[in-house]
Structures
1.
Amino acid sequence: MEKYLTVKEVAEILRMGKTMAYELVNKPDFPSVKIGKKILIPESEFERFMKRYWYKQYTM
């Protein structure tokens, strides 16, 4: 079963503020699901996104 992260959890993992975390999860290429006003991030998709991000940052 898929585990979902909250925006607060993403902010804690990435050690960033809540405002910056909301900016991140609202980007079109960020994997998030909006249910009503709640934003959830599938953990496996978050990990995939971060691997792609770090790969781009450190291979250019």
2.
Amino acid sequence: MEKTEPWTLARIAYASLAVITLALGIAGLFLPLLPTTPFVLIAAWAASKGSPRLHRWLWNHPQIGPLLHNWHTKGAVPRNAKWFACISMSLSWIGLLAIGMNWIILGIMAFLFLSVAAFLITRPEPD
């Protein structure tokens, strides 16, 4: 059994952030406007500072672990994740248009989604 540092306010805050962002990342699998990957990356970072147990679980998870490893070592994003993110953002924007969202909001969201898509597309792919 490994010894961990005592619970401090900072450690509690990081662990809480990790759990909340992981929950948001999981919710993002089902909610089109909520991104998954950034929340999982934040959860992994926060867990490394607040919860060694959650950090290990994330890194050893069969689906999440390889993604974290590829991002950490190469800044790499799998092609299917790029496609899924771009299609989800496109559908989300079309949904906003369909419900009659204000043009200013549509413009801001288009800029945001295009910026994220450009960033994702330019990331290398894992081997």
3.
Amino acid sequence: MASLQKSNVQPFGMKDKLGYMFGDFGNDFTFILSSSFMLKFYTDVMGIGAGTVGALMMAARFVDAITDVTMGQIVDRSKPTKDGKFKPWLKRMCGPVAIASFLIYQSAFANMAYGFKLVWMVVTYILWGSIFYTSINIPYGSMASAVTSDPKERAELSTWRTIGATLAGLVIGAGTPMVALVVVDGQTVLSGSRMTIIAGVFSVCAIICYLMCFNLVRERVEVPANNQKLDIGKLIGSIFSNRALLGIIAAAILLLVAQLGMGGMAGYVFPNFYNSKEAQSVSSITGTIAMLAICAPLAVKLSTKFGKKELSIVSCLFGAASYLVCLVICPSSPYVYVAFYTLAYIGLGFFNTVIWAMITDVIDDAEVKNGIREDGTIYAVYSFARKVGQALSSGMTGVLLDMVGYSQKTAFDPDVTKGIFNLSCIIPVVGLSAVALALMFLYPLSKSRVEANVAELQRRHGR
């Protein structure tokens, strides 16, 4: 069923962009905290092995295979309200997702029995990621196509969403190490009690950001409820026959393996290899500056001129090359390492900036082929893929840390820390190179194909 442009709401503008930015700001107050610090919290504070924590993060994705697609179907089949079809979920679920995130980081349980700590970690992580984060992130991501039907404006929304994530990354990445890391007997270690306080503060901030998104964004494209009878076999078939969706899923998983691998290893390479919490904080600041000063202002212009797919391939290869040089040089100064980290962040940053607009391109492509608009379902499948990428990154990081012999007792052993440095470079080199290959050979939506789809949908909808 065609989606229709509403005529009785204010035109798309800065309020929508700022509101959408706040939405991902809220998301990442819990998401980035989990991907960057949960593994270290449970290894260093709670005393659970890195491989065990990583295994949990990977196993939880089997739950997401059900909850993500279920939430996508719920969203697609829900009827629009006076606030829109997608926005109401932000208000409904912002409290539960924030509380669940806070419960993950309870250092008061550090001296409890190992079995209790393991069960607590499993239950709170699944509640946060598989249930509550899913129930707010999928409607939020699906909402972009209801805010505007214009490809350029959607690219702007994608850019502002990335700005929100970048600002959250700055607050979490720069602020958390300076507060949570303390020096004990000359060694930089994580304070469990401080992490608990930080998690609580970030949960409150997440709620505020979600409510800002709810109040600023307007849904102006009507997306009617999908009332067709659910056919699981047909749904699975349509997913696996959608080459554009499979291509962006592969690229997204590999991007998150690279990006979250960088973030996760930063929690070890700076305090353990370089013994510098300051450099870890600086890396977050420089990465943020690079995103805001280079990627955000140029992404729309470059993607409009060359295409989102084409821009992303080149930028990811640049990021991979940056870390390859760092691996070969092995700088002794943490700030030289920060420079390579920043260059790689620019490389992945362009793809990160336009990827949300690429999802709307995939949704458009599916509508051109099938005649049905399934924003929630397609975004749910993509969201599940992102969680797989998050899990693979955390699981892989945990397993690789085990392989180099990392534990509470060996955290500052020279052989172990050298292995940590090598991993911190190899993970993004392999990950970003693989992203470029996935976009090159799997993802079919070139600049010309996207423009043709937009023209066809405008013809069908009479716009």
4.
Amino acid sequence: MTRSPRDERREYSSGGLNERDLPADPLVLFAEWYDAAVRAGVREPNAMALATADAEGAPSARIVLLKGFGADGLTFFTNYRSRKGRELEQNPRAALVFWWSELERQVRVEGAVARVSAAESDEYFASRPWYSQIGASVSPQSDPIESREILERAVVARVESLAGGAVPRPAEWGGYCLVPTAFEFWQGRENRLHDRIRYRRDGGWIIGRLAP
């Protein structure tokens, strides 16, 4: 049976954006919107779509979790040998999308990506739950595996070998920081006349409105 999502629509009317009222720094607005998403009870407000592309420009996207943001950029962690890791080695640029449906808001971020320091990766890895560390240490992320049982056996073996001790951070696992060159803040409006405000870096930040 063919479904028709074209009829699944809703009106957006919870707010608006006026470029005259916005801060000069997009990270200030991003922090305000992120905090609003937390207060609104958005489940995993740090969930974001991460889009990368290989050397030939073929794109791929997936949901990852934002683990830090500030003047240096936006940080996430993964396996460097995963598909996204391999693509970022070939083409070190990416795009992020946050969607906070409860607030009828979307944020897009684009920029160059580089690995964070080993010390930062060590610090974050050590902060993760112990079994999450185990999982990261045994998973050949993005590689084909014959069955889930193989992965589960690898977890059991690693747990037994460590006997509750510290899990060393795998050399192939760590963080990336996206340094923004553009932000777009999208606020849903009635009749699909959405507000779209773009910050574009050109020395400083240039603010402009985009048609919906």
